[in-house]
């Protein structure tokens, strides 16, 4: 086991052993499905990389939020849900809604094309954000 990871696992175990209920946090990502289809036809690795970039950026930007800190402390409980948006317009509409509702998120823009490819929320309890994401299905 990597030396830097071990303390996070121990903290999670101590919390569970003490009987303290740990809140389950989820990081949601909404990735454009059309990028993998014509006319874009991006390879799977390039599409997956967009989700990775967005997730990393959201965790970094919101690193001081207590939910993000808790999410990163318990690596063995880390949960992500990847949803699909049909196109850039739908992704941008979601970003506007999240902005209006003060939901912390990051829109990843692929450069140099400046194409919105993915939205990543910081970790949230799912009941706090489900209402904004329920129209999106799991990415396939």
TrEMBL record:
It comes from the Eukaryota. It catalyses: an N-acyl-L-alpha-aminoacyl-tRNA + H2O = an N-acyl-L-amino acid + a tRNA + H(+). Its EC number is 3.1.1.29. Pfam families: PTH2. The keyword Lipid biosynthesis does not apply. GO terms for molecular function: peptidyl-tRNA hydrolase activity. This is peptidyl-tRNA hydrolase. It comes from Galemys pyrenaicus (Iberian desman).
């Amino acid at each position: 086991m990597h030396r830097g990871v071990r303390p996070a696992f121990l903290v999670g175990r101590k919390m569970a052993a003490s009987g303290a209920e740990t809140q389950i946090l989820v990081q949601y990502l909404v990735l454009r499905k059309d990028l993998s289809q014509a006319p874009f036809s991006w390879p799977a690795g390039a599409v997956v990389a967009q989700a990775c970039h967005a997730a990393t950026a959201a965790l970094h930007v919101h690193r001081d939020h207590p939910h993000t800190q808790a999410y990163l402390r318990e690596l063995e409980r880390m949960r992500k849900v990847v949803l699909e948006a049909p196109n850039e317009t739908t992704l941008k509409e979601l970003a506007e809604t999240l902005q209006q509702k003060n939901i912390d998120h990051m829109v990843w823009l692929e450069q140099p094309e400046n194409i919105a490819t993915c939205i990543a929320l910081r970790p949230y309890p799912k009941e706090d954000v489900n209402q904004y994401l329920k129209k999106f299905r799991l990415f396939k």
